[in-house]
Amino acid sequence: MIAEIGQFVLVLALIIAGVQVVVPMVGAARGDGTLMAFGSRMAVAQAVLLILAFAALTHAFVVSDFSLALVFQNSHSLKPMLYKVSGVWGNHEGSMLMWVLILAVYGAAVAVFGRNLPPTLKARVLSVQAMIGVAFLAFIVFTSNPFLRLNPAPPDGTGLNPLLQDPGLAFHPPLLYLGYVGFSMAFSFAVAALIEGRIDAAWGRWVRPWTLAAWVFLTGGIALGSWWAYYELGWGGWWFWDPVENASFMPWLFGTALLHSSIVVEKRDSLKSWTILLAILTFSMSLLGTFLVRSGVLTSVHTFASDPARGIFILMILLVTVGGALSLFAWRAPTIRGGGLFAPVSREGALVLNNMLLTLACATVLLGTLYPLILDAASSGASRVSVGPPYFNATFAPIMVPLVAAMAIGPLLAWKRGNLRAAARKLLLAAAAAIAAVAATFIAVPDGPALAPFAIGLAAWIATGTLVEGSARIRLFAAPAAESWRRLTGLPRAASGMTLAHLGMAVLIAGITGASAWRSELITTLAVGETAQIKNYALTLQAVENGKGPNYNFERGTFLLTDRNGATIVMYPERRFFPVAGQSTTEAAIKTTLMADLYAVLGTSRTTPEGTEQWTVRFFINPMVPWIWLGALVMVGGGLLSLSDRRHRVGAPRRKQQHAPGVSGAPAPAE
Amino acid sequence: MRRILLILPVVIFAVLIGVLAVLTLQTKDGRDPSLIPSALLGKPAPEFSLPAVAEDIPGGFATADLRGRVTMVNVFASWCVPCLAEHPLISRLAADGLPIYAIDHRDTAVDVAKWLKKNGNPYTAVGFDPDGRVSVEWGVTGVPETFIINADGVVIYKHSGLMTAKVLKDKILPKIREARE
Fold it and tell me: What is the dihedral sign for C-alpha B90, B95, B100, B106?
């Protein structure tokens, strides 16, 4: 019965979204306030209906209602409750429902919090948002209905892929969707502005918080997904340039560019056409990702069991939404009047460079991801290639170097016309720190790749440059400590957020460098009692025992790790076998310190002709890997801090400013 | 100039959609993205020699047996469900006069003898490969797999997985016809 309610409200949401496309758009065209206001109510209604539909599906999973085909295929009565719930979005249909739910919630957020938006813009944004909603709701209702019944109901389910029974995986899709779908806001604002024919600084101010929120979620989602791949897949790596990873990374790159260019729109009323285009492109990348994951054109550990008929449907959605938006852009962009002019050396100039490099980086990733597909299509499957890390490392890293180098300089330049020499003087300390870091790394790790110390130097360069800029703002050491403190607390949170996020980037770069340059790997076979040597450690397989978990059987190895000084560490990697799914997973044992991860994987066993049982053992020393997640976490923190800035609050900022005049006391520093 | 720049994204996007559409349609027609084209295609069949399963089952064959006419090599096992599903098609092809050699992959002699007795033995010869060593030579990643070898002993086609009537009609029969000409 509850499932039928879910089905019913899902169809109702589709109908309401259809009305929401038309009514506010007509209202905005006619200047009819009643029709426009109607849009807000429908947006809220659509969100409420989809919450109900999602709740109905969750209920079916929680009570293990196997009369639903989806629950039968993706759940099992013996599964822990957490994974019964995460099973709701651990499959194609349920995750699509979550996708449209998030889309509708964003739409409702505009309806509720966008009180100070010009009514016509708001109505058009809601209408565009509803167009995306209609497309995907129709997709769900007609090709991927989550509420299909089975008759008779089977006694028990067929389990969930055990790889997916993991907290890291359970929670990274919701974060990713909040990010992907969050960029729909920038898209809807861009299309609405193109229809409206008016893009001004206020537009930038409205778009920025949504973009920032989506960026924070996406950063968190990618980091969590990469962490999951790192500890669950047992490959010892954290990023594989897998097509589906790239699909999440491309919106991130464009989204990061958008985040920066919308600052120029807001502060300087410039770069408007470009920002609009970026907003469209960012969401296009989200849609492209949805297509790649669900259409079955490629295989990856991350893809859903897919159906080409769905692929055609998503392709049609892509054609209409993105094709329509880009055509609208080509038609209307010439009417957008450019605002403030700026010299090449200026804050704007630095942000343009940032955008060009991020776009180039995204184009590189896009090409690497699609090239095998293009070749495959052109040759009808006769020639299959895979583009792997060597391509991406060779093309992506060189683009990142100037981007990161400029990251320290940009914030030190003034708007409109900057003084490069003055900025360079301020960065003397950063240059010194970078050189010191290169030298120190060369001495500490003389046998690694030659470029690695320079990458560490680059990380030191941004970290110091960012700190120099931050301390200049609060006149650290230049003014009495009390005044610096007062300035620090009075600093706009958006500014502190930027400082924090850029510092996070420095930490991330150091982590990536360490993990890719100085990693050691050992793959060998060991019988119980045997020892292998890796770097400074002796690795002994002490025992292998069998046992039973809640819904799996496991084989657990006990490894004793002895370093040169005789200190010992014990590690317990596992292999788990899930009888219901008939699948095995590896549970790597990871011992982490701030400087390195020790990573052990127990592989399959075989019996030698002499009759001894040997296990395949993989052991990695991954230096600085924890810095990757730490850096991402700091970036997310920076984003959240910036999001909490009162100027980003979507409510009624103007009224509040009157109550607290001159928050910072001193003239507000340029952001 | 600015016009062209503004239209450029639309053009690039149209090309992208075109490529993805072709791929999606190919996927709909049975393209399997997980398959890697066999390294053996266009190369002579690997050197091997397989024993018979039992005395009463015609079998035991080697590389030399695959020369002089168009043949098919079918990798199967008694425990493999899709193999059973494609068995009627194999039988019909054999009845039509195509010599089909079978590699019995990771199986036991008792099981496969029982299976052939129950489902019929259409094969010209069955080679017994209990440890899968010869299958490795052929680059077999799973059962069933089907190869077509021309009269010169060169592998001209490989199909991985279940051979359906559609695959037979659209892919395999044209290859056999082509090879016989």
Answer: positive
Distance CA A352, CA A458 (A): 21
* Amino acid A640: pLDDT: 95
Interface A–B counts its CB contacts (< 8 A) at 81
Q: How far is CA A373 from CA A296, A360, A385, B33, in A?
A: 12, 20, 9, 9
Contact list in B for residue A321 (CB cut-off 8 A) is none
Q: What pLDDT sits at residue A657? A: 41
The whole-angstrom separation of Cα A647 and Cα A189 is: 18
Q: Which of residues 10-69 of B touch A (CB under 8 A)?
A: 10, 13-14, 16-17, 19-28, 31, 33-37
Q: What token pair was written down for A75?
A: 């759940």
Alpha carbon distance A373, A376 (integer Å): 5
- Least confident range from A47-56, A194-203, B134-143: namely B134-143
Neighbours of A582 (CB within 10 A): 10
Pairing of strands A574-578, B61-62: unpaired
First to last CA, chain B: 56
Gyration radius from chain B CA atoms: 21
Contacts for B167 with CB less than 8 Å, ≥ 6 apart: B30, B159
Residue of A nearest to B3 (CA): A330
Which residues are bridge partners to A586 per DSSP? A575
CA distance linking residue A21 with residue A388, whole number of Å: 42
Tokens 């490795």 sit at which residue?
A: B136
- Candidates A295, A320, A328: best to mutate against B (most CBs of B within 10 A) is A295
Please list every residue in chain A whose beta carbon sits closer than 8 Å to the beta carbon of residue B17: 315, 318-319, 323
| CA distances, A13 to each of A48, A57, A70 (Å) | 9, 15, 21
Min distance B53 CA to chain A CA atoms (Å): 24
Closest CA to A62 of A78, A85, A42, A79: A85
Contacts of residue A260, defined as CB under 8 A and 6 or more positions apart, other chains included, come to A351, A354, A355, A358
pLDDT digits (tens, 9 = 90+) for B114-143: 899 989 999 999 999 888 788 888 877 777
Min Cα distance A376 → chain B (Å) is: 8
What is the SS3 assignment for B62? strand
* Angle, helix A92-113 to helix A33-62, in steps of 10 degrees: 140
Query: B28: distance to nearest CA of chain A, Å?
Result: 5
Q: What is the C-alpha separation between A231 and A214, in angstroms, rounded? A: 26
What separation, in Å, do the N-terminal and C-terminal C-alpha atoms of chain A show? 55
What distance in Å separates the CA atoms of residue A249 and residue A163, rounded to the nearest whole number? 22
pLDDT at A168: 77
Are A282 and A359 a contacting pair, CB within 8 Å? no
Contacts of A266 (CB under 8 A, 6+ apart): A201, A204, A205, A208
d(CA B151, CA B179): 8
DSSP A612: -
The residue in chain A having the minimum alpha-carbon distance to the alpha carbon of residue B35 is: A384
Beta strand B125-129 pairing with B100-105? parallel
Q: Is residue A268 within 8 Å of A221, Cβ to Cβ? A: no
B76 has which bridge partners?
Answer: B104
Whether A284 contacts chain B with CB within 8 A: yes
Please name the residue of chain A whose CA is at the shortest distance from the CA of residue B4. A330
Q: How far apart are CA A130 and CA A20, in angstroms?
A: 6
Q: Which residues of B touch A311 (CB under 8 A)?
A: 24, 27-28
Ordered domains of chain A (ranges, CATH): 1-165 (1.20.120), 427-518+627-646 (no CATH), 520-623 (2.60.98)
Rounded to two decimals, the pTM is 0.82
Distance in angstroms (rounded) separating the CA atoms of residues A94 and B42: 45
Query: Helix, strand, coil % (nearest 5) of chain B?
Result: 45, 20, 40
